[in-house]
Structure formats: structure tokens, C-alpha cells
């Protein structure tokens, strides 16, 4: 037979996960003869795994018809399901839904009790999950798992675990859901799953971990995904997403050059797969890295690419405008996105930027409202990453409210968490705030050390915009600051010298009279003068008015 030379090597290549060889050898074996259905399924799978999506779809359709002709209804339905499910995942809802419906109809007409009956209800569960009906989704995923257990199908059991975990997480039962995610991944690491199911599990688990900001889990499973991809050099469908996940982790850990390299590779690979949802996010990651490094033109171009792939550009674009000094544009954009965002994941992603921008425009009450909401979300999800964001935001707001001593506790808490998460950029930004608090309290030695540490870290990272901001935040030079007044105290002194009362000063600065009374007392003590009039005279003499 003509197939003899390549059929057995094709099977062997498939077994050792050499997908390109398996595709080439099994394809060659089809010339002039017909393969058995098992070999055609191997060929369809190999085609998908090397990125030949059209060929894979054609093969699944062919196997479906051949199995139907042969009276193998269960196999025919299974092929229709995988064809439909792949189309659904790539965004072709109509075609995908039609193939899944055909699989279901075949099973119902024959009244078959088989594992395929569990697979065809998975899209129903996903639909319920998408509509926010978490308990309905959980029930359907659970039913699919029962089929998987009854017919000893580890792929369906793992998909059920993943789906039930996602459903529980969406319902607010975070720990229960995360445990099920881990259970699904154990099946993956044990080598029990087919390549197609394995990719679904990996991506689903990691993306769910990111949605609940469980960075430790996301990092562990991304490392595992990387090993899995590297063990299959020919693998195409999941490699781009793997690169995106790796880039995220590298960015957090301060390896910005490596993160950029991975993100750019992801952009290249994903661009060649129509319908791949991660493509826009890969470009967004590139834009974020350019923004952090001060490469604003490149950042804008990458944001535009992300937009073309349908990715929402906020809060990154608003933060870019803030860094460019376009404060009003940044404010309008972030207010709009916060007002429009309804789901928890989106709101959690934009609230830290909202707090930062509101503080930049002096809207402390709005910043406080945003930080309070972020705190409530952190209490629900109980993720260290969120607690770091929340406590850092609370500290920044207390500083804006002239409560430096009170601000130090949440700022130091944020500092500890960022250090544990090995996040140097976020840690440096918190150290700047700690330095400002210490300076306002008159502890300039500690302030200087915090500023120096932050400056060193930002310099190592190449964070040009934040370095520039740090330069503007340094305390007034020693020659101009013999009085050791804080910036806020200098501001209050100028208003005293202009003849304003404490009540008027409080109104102008949007602070309480009690806070202004404390500032005035501190000013008199630091200047060693007995009265407001003497303080005003000092201000005039030292050109502080």
C-alpha cells in the first residue's frame, strides 16, 4: 500500500507530539487511498496544532460524514462537536453553533447514552456563564462531568472542573472555585489529557486566575504552560497566549526588555491566527511597556494596533495622556470608562488608574470613592496584588488629605506586599509616597533614603516618566529650605501672608479647619516665631509669598 511508508511514522510522530511531522506524514499517507477514521482524527488534530485551521476544519467535517455513512453516530457527533467548538472559540458563532447543534441532534435522534452527550452541553454552560447565570452554568458543567466520569473520559472531567471553578468564582466563592481550577490542572500535569483539551484547560485556568488577580497561581501555571509548549516545538494555537502570559509576569517582575521581546513575539504569532482574542491584548502589553519607558510615540502606535484588534485601550491610554501632561484628556477618559464599566473585572482593572488621575486633578473625594470600592473588591477576592493596590491608594489619598502620619501605615503595608510579589516598579512608586510622608513629618533623612532607593530602582528599570516625576517631587533644596517646611506648609504660609483666616484657607485648600490649625502650629514652631503676623513677615523676608 502507498500508505505503508508514512502511516506508521505518522502515528509514531503523533504519539511523541511531533505535530509537524505527524501532519506531513499522515497527509502523505492519504494520497491515493483512504485512512482509517482513527488516523484521520490524528491528522485533523495535528493540522489544528500546527496552525492549519482551515485544513483541520475540512478534516473534521470529512470524518463526521464518513463516520455518519459508516453508522458510527457517536464518532460522527464527536467530530461535529470539535469542529463546532473550535469555530465558537475563534469567534465564528453561527457556524460553530450550527455544528454543535448538529452533533446534539444526531445523539438525540439515536437516543445514545455516550460521553459525547456530555460534550455537546458544554457550550450551553458557557452561554449561561456569559449571561451571568453562574449557578445554571455550574449545574450544566457538573452534568457534563458526570458523563465524563461515567465513561472514563479525563478530558471532559477536566473541562467540567474548569467550568465549575469558573462558575463558583463568578458567584463569589473564590476559594472553592480556585480549588477546582487546580484539580483541572493536576489532570493536565499528570498527562491524562489530549493536546486540544490540555490547551483549553491551560488557557482557561490562567485567564481565570488573572481575572481574580491571583498572580501566584497565574505565575505557577504560566510556568507550567511554558514547559508544555516548549515540549512541543511545532505547537501553534497556544504558544502566542503563552508568550502573552509570560510577558505579563516579566513586566511585573521588572524584566521589561524580556517582557517586550515576548510580547512582540506574541503579536507576530497571534496576528497569523484570525479570531484569536489575545492579539489585541498582546499589542496593549507592548503599548504599556513603551508607556512605562517613556517611549510615548511607540506607545501610541501600539495602542492603535490593539484597538484595530478590538481591544479596549483603557486605562493605559488615559495614563499615557497623564504622563504627556494632557490631564484634562486623561480625566475625561478615565471618568467615562469608570462610569461605563459594570463588571467587577473591568472595574478592578481601571480603579487604580482612576484614583491616580483623580488625585492628579485634585478631586480627592472621587479618588477616595474609587479607593473604597477597590478595597471592597479586595476584601472579596483576598488577593495580595489587590491588597497592595488598595493600601497604596489609601496611603496616597491620606497624603493628599494632609495626614502623613496616618498614611505611613497603609503605605508600608503596600510596600511589604509589593516586595513579596517581587514587583520593583510598584514598590518604587510606593517608596516615593513613603518619602513624601516622611518629609512632611520633618524626617528628611528617611525621606532622602526612600527617594534614593526609588530613584535607583526606576533607573534600573528605565522608567523615564516616573524618574522625571520623582525629580519634581524631591524636597526643596537645602539652600531654600532652612525653615524645613513641607510643601503644604509653604502653601499655607503664603495664604497666611495674603491675610486669609484659617477658615478661608481650609475652604481654598479643601481641608478641614482642624488640619489648617495643625499646619499653622507646625509653621510657627518650625520658624520659631510667636504669631501669624511674624510668620507672614518671615515669608515676605524669605521670598516665600
Radius of gyration: 30 Å
CATH superfamily of the domain at 133-234: Tetratricopeptide repeat domain
How much strand content do the residues show? under 5%
Low-pLDDT windows of residues: 475-480
Keywords: DNA-binding, Transcription, Transcription regulation
Domain HTH luxR-type: 478-543
Protein name: HTH luxR-type domain-containing protein
Task: Summarize the topology.
Elements: H1 4-15, H2 19-29, H3 37-49, H4 53-69, H5 73-89, H6 93-110, H7 116-119, H8 122-130, H9 134-150, H10 154-170, H11 174-189, H12 195-211, H13 215-230, H14 239-252, H15 256-271, H16 278-292, H17 296-308, H18 316-323, H19 327-340, H20 344-360, H21 364-381, H22 384-400, H23 404-420, H24 424-440, H25 444-461, H26 464-473, H27 487-497, H28 502-509, H29 513-527, H30 532-541
Helix pairs in contact: 1-2, 2-3, 3-4, 4-5, 5-6, 8-9, 8-10, 9-10, 10-11, 10-12, 11-12, 12-13, 13-14, 14-15, 14-16, 15-16, 16-17, 16-18, 18-19, 19-20, 20-21, 20-22, 21-22, 22-23, 22-24, 23-24, 24-25, 25-26, 27-29, 27-30, 28-29
Domain HTH luxR-type: 478-543
Protein name: HTH luxR-type domain-containing protein
Keywords: DNA-binding, Transcription, Transcription regulation
Question: Could you characterize what this model shows?
Answer:
Helix 2 crosses helix 3 (37-49), helix 5 (73-89) runs antiparallel to helix 6 (93-110) and helix 23 runs antiparallel to helix 24. Among the domains are: 133-234, Alpha Horseshoe (Serine Threonine Protein Phosphatase 5, Tetratricopeptide repeat), CATH 1.25.40; 383-475, Serine Threonine Protein Phosphatase 5, Tetratricopeptide repeat (Alpha Horseshoe); 487-541, Orthogonal Bundle (Arc Repressor Mutant, subunit A), CATH 1.10.10. It is mostly helical. Helix content is 77%, strand content 0%. The radius of gyration is 30 Å and the shape is elongated. It has helices at residues 4-15, 19-29, 37-49, 53-69, 73-89, 93-110, 116-119, 122-130, 134-150, 154-170, 174-189, 195-211, 215-230, 239-252, 256-271, 278-292, 296-308, 316-323, 327-340, 344-360, 364-381, 384-400, 404-420, 424-440, 444-461, 464-473, 487-497, 502-509, 513-527, 532-541.
Amino acid at each position: 500500500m502507498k500508505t505503508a511508508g508514512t502511516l506508521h511514522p505518522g502515528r509514531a510522530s503523533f504519539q511523541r507530539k511531533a505535530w509537524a511531522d505527524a501532519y506531513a506524514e499522515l497527509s502523505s499517507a492519504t494520497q491515493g487511498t483512504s485512512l482509517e477514521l482513527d488516523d484521520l482524527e490524528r491528522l485533523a488534530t495535528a493540522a489544528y496544532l500546527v496552525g492549519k485551521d482551515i485544513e483541520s476544519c475540512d478534516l473534521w467535517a470529512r470524518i463526521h460524514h464518513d463516520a455518519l455513512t459508516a453508522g458510527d453516530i457517536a464518532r460522527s457527533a464527536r467530530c461535529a462537536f470539535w469542529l463546532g467548538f473550535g469555530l465558537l472559540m475563534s469567534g465564528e458563532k453561527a457556524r460553530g453553533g450550527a455544528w454543535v447543534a448538529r452533533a446534539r441532534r444526531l445523539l438525540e435522534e439515536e437516543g445514545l447514552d455516550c460521553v459525547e452527550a456530555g460534550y455537546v452541553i458544554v457550550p450551553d454552560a458557557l452561554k449561561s456563564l456569559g449571561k451571568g447565570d453562574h449557578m445554571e452554568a455550574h449545574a450544566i458543567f457538573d452534568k457534563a462531568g458526570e458523563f465524563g466520569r461515567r465513561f472514563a473520559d479525563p478530558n471532559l472531567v477536566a473541562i467540567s472542573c474548569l467550568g465549575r471553578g469558573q462558575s463558583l468564582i463568578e458567584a463569589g466563592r473564590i476559594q472553592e472555585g480556585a480549588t477546582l481550577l487546580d484539580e483541572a490542572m493536576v489532570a493536565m500535569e499528570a498527562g491524562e489529557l489530549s493536546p486540544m483539551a490540555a490547551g483549553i484547560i491551560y488557557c482557561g485556568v490562567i485567564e481565570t486566575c488573572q481575572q481574580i488577580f491571583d498572580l501566584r497561581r497565574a505565575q505557577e501555571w504560566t510556568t507550567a504552560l511554558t514547559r508544555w509548549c516548549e515540549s512541543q516545538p511545532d505547537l501553534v494555537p497556544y504558544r502566542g497566549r503563552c508568550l502573552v502570559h509570560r510577558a505579563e509576569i516579566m513586566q511585573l517582575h521588572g524584566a521589561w526588555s524580556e517582557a517586550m521581546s515576548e510580547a512582540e513575539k506574541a503579536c507576530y504569532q497571534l496576528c497569523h491566527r484570525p479570531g484569536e482574542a489575545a492579539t489585541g491584548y498582546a499589542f496593549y502589553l507592548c503599548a504599556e511597556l513603551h508607556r512605562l519607558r517613556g517611549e510615548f510615540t511607540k506607545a501610541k502606535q501600539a495602542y492603535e494596533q490593539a484597538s484595530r484588534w478590538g481591544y479596549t485601550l483603557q486605562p493605559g491610554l488615559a495614563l499615557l495622556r497623564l504622563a504627556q501632561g494632557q490631564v484634562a484628556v486623561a480625566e475625561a477618559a478615565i471618568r467615562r470608562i469608570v462610569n461605563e464599566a459594570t463588571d467587577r473585572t473591568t472595574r478592578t482593572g481601571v480603579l487604580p488608574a482612576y484614583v491616580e488621575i483623580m488625585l492628579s486633578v485634585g478631586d480627592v473625594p472621587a479618588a477616595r470613592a474609587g479607593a473604597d470600592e477597590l478595597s471592597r473588591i479586595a476584601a472579596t477576592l483576598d488577593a495580595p496584588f489587590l491588597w497592595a493596590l488598595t493600601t497604596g491608594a489609601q496611603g496616597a489619598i491620606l497624603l493628599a488629605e494632609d495626614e502623613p502620619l496616618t498614611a505611613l501605615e497603609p503605605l508600608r503595608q503596600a510596600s511589604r506586599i509589593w516586595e513579596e510579589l517581587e514587583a520593583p516598579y510598584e514598590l518604587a512608586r510606593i517608596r516615593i509616597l513613603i518619602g513624601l510622608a516622611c518629609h512632611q513629618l520633618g524626617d528628611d533623612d528617611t525621606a532622602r533614603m526612600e527617594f534614593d532607593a526609588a530613584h535607583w530602582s526606576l533607573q534600573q528599570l528605565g522608567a523615564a516618566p516616573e524618574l522625571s516625576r520623582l525629580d519634581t517631587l524631591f524636597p526643596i533644596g537645602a539652600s531654600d529650605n532652612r525653615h524645613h517646611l513641607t510643601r503644604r506648609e509653604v502653601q499655607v504660609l503664603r495664604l497666611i501672608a495674603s491675610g486669609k483666616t484659617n477658615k478661608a484657607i481650609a475652604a481654598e485648600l479643601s481641608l478641614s479647619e482642624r488640619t489648617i490649625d495643625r499646619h499653622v502650629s507646625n509653621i510657627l514652631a518650625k520658624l520659631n516665631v510667636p504669631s501669624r503676623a511674624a510668620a507672614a513677615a518671615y515669608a515676605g523676608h524669605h521670598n516665600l509669598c
